[in-house]
Amino acid sequence: MSIVTFEQRKEKITKIEHIDEQIDLARSYVKRLRNKAKNCTGTLTEKLALNEDVKQAELAFRKLRMASFEIEDDLLAKSKLN
What are 16-73's pLDDT values in tens digits? Predict the structure, then answer.
C-alpha cells in the first residue's frame, strides 16, 4: 500500500489554513490504518505489512505536527516577499 508521506502532505500546503487541514487528514489516515490493522483477518505477512504502513503514517503525522510552525513561518516569509 502506498502511504501518504510527509513530503506529499507538505506540498499540498499553500496557505496557513491548509496546515491544520493536512494535520487533521493525517490524523484520520492513521486512525483508519490502525483500525484496518486491528481488524485484519489475513495472513501474518498481511498483518505485518499493515503494521508497517501504520508506522510510516504515524511518522509522517508526527513530522507534520513538529514542522507545522516552520511551515507556517515559511509561508509567512513567502507572503511578505510578494
Answer: 999 999 999 999 999 999 999 999 999 999 999 999 999 999 999 999 999 999 999 9
Taking the C-alpha atoms of 60, 61, 62 and 63 in order, what is their torsion angle to the nearest 10 degrees?
Answer: 50
Statement: the pTM of the whole predicted model exceeds 0.85: yes
How far is it, in rounded angstroms, from Cα 12 to Cα 52? 24
Q: Is 40 left (phi over 0), alpha (psi -120 to 50) or beta?
A: beta
Under 8 Å CB-to-CB from 21, ≥6 apart: which residues? none
Phi-psi region for residue 81, left (φ > 0), alpha (ψ -120 to 50) or beta?
A: alpha
